[in-house]
Amino acid sequence: MWNAPPCMRLECAVPRAQRGLTLIELMVGVTVLSILLLFAVPSFQGTIARSRLTSSTNDLVSAMALARSEAIRRGTRVTVCKTANGTACTTSGGWQQGWLVFADPTRGSAAATVDAGETVIAVAGARPGNINVLGTANFANFVSFAADGTVRTMNGTSMAGRLRVCSNSGALTDATRAREVDITSAGRLATTVVNVTSACVAPT
Is the pTM of this model over 0.85? Predict the structure, then answer.
């Protein structure tokens, strides 16, 4: 009688029910995964924080550029002010609660106000968590552009200043957590990286 040759494959040597990971292999896998997560999670948090900082800075610069171009195009004053509700200017809190751009031909006080009949051109909502936006004393509440593109107070005096966008996220260092948007009296914008602590105080 012919005898079949013995099976030389591994699955023949090891019963199907006994195949799988050993305890040592499982422990090694869990250890490697833990090490990877230890490095990956902080890096991911840093990526999110940097993205929020960049996005908020770009949105702010875009709002200022839009206000200046609209002031020139419309031939009238256009103001950017911080807002808590998307319809009216506010003098409390920081710019991170949101801002709006509006045509501002009517001005009767030192504060920016959206008067009846004035057109709201654009609105930006509240910034994501850990983002603070604060201005120098003269830019604490609004930035206003005259019809020639220059920056003016409500009574027409020339002005300049800066706004600071800052993240107090622990995933960022003091050297990478803040951007400043400098606005000259001529209305020109420039963005720089500044070294700021996690307190994210207003610029001077």
Answer: no
